[in-house]
Automatic annotation (TrEMBL):
<keyword id="KW-1003">Cell membrane</keyword>
<dbReference type="InterPro" id="IPR045324">
    <property type="entry name" value="Small_multidrug_res"/>
</dbReference>
<dbReference type="GO" id="GO:1990961">
    <property type="term" value="P:xenobiotic detoxification by transmembrane export across the plasma membrane"/>
</dbReference>
<dbReference type="GO" id="GO:0031460">
    <property type="term" value="P:glycine betaine transport"/>
</dbReference>
<comment type="similarity">
    <text>Belongs to the drug/metabolite transporter (DMT) superfamily. Small multidrug resistance (SMR) (TC 2.A.7.1) family.</text>
</comment>
<dbReference type="GO" id="GO:0015199">
    <property type="term" value="F:amino-acid betaine transmembrane transporter activity"/>
</dbReference>
<keyword id="KW-0472">Membrane</keyword>
<keyword id="KW-0812">Transmembrane</keyword>
<keyword id="KW-1133">Transmembrane helix</keyword>
<protein>
    <submittedName>
        <fullName>QacE family quaternary ammonium compound efflux SMR transporter</fullName>
    </submittedName>
</protein>
<keyword id="KW-0813">Transport</keyword>
<feature type="transmembrane region" description="Helical">
    <location>
        <begin position="58"/>
        <end position="79"/>
    </location>
</feature>
<dbReference type="InterPro" id="IPR037185">
    <property type="entry name" value="EmrE-like"/>
</dbReference>
<feature type="transmembrane region" description="Helical">
    <location>
        <begin position="85"/>
        <end position="104"/>
    </location>
</feature>
<dbReference type="GO" id="GO:0005886">
    <property type="term" value="C:plasma membrane"/>
</dbReference>
<dbReference type="GO" id="GO:0015220">
    <property type="term" value="F:choline transmembrane transporter activity"/>
</dbReference>
<dbReference type="InterPro" id="IPR000390">
    <property type="entry name" value="Small_drug/metabolite_transptr"/>
</dbReference>
Length: 110
């Protein structure tokens, strides 16, 4: 169970860092840039803890898939990014892939 808490912390940290990238304006603004660096450092720290018990391929698939879905949602809600039908279908397929991996794959830890 602890590995899922670590993976969730890695995902949330990565999403915070990626969300702050736009505000960092190419690392020319101090505070958003610090948020990016701290968030990514935290994300990789927790991802490394996750890899003690979850295979790297599984952990990375979940981490990146959840991150893509959450960042897309934040981009739509916060930054007003438009998502067309193809983008929404692609995101749904990514989430579905992560779910299939977790529910049906014997490679994913229980």
């Amino acid at each position: 169970m602890q590995q899922w808490v670590f993976l969730s912390a890695a995902i949330v940290s990565e999403v915070i860092g990626t969300s702050a990238l736009k505000s960092a304006e190419g690392f020319t603004r101090l505070w958003p840039s610090l948020i990016v660096v701290i968030s990514y450092s935290t994300a990789f720290f927790f991802l490394s803890l996750t890899l003690k018990t979850i295979p790297v391929g599984i952990a990375y698939a979940i981490w990146s898939g959840a991150g893509i879905a959450l960042i897309s949602l934040i981009a739509w809600l916060v930054f007003g990014q438009k998502l067309d039908a193809a983008a929404i279908i692609g995101i749904v397929l990514i989430v579905a892939g992560v779910m299939v991996l977790n529910v049906f794959s014997n490679a994913a830890p229980q």
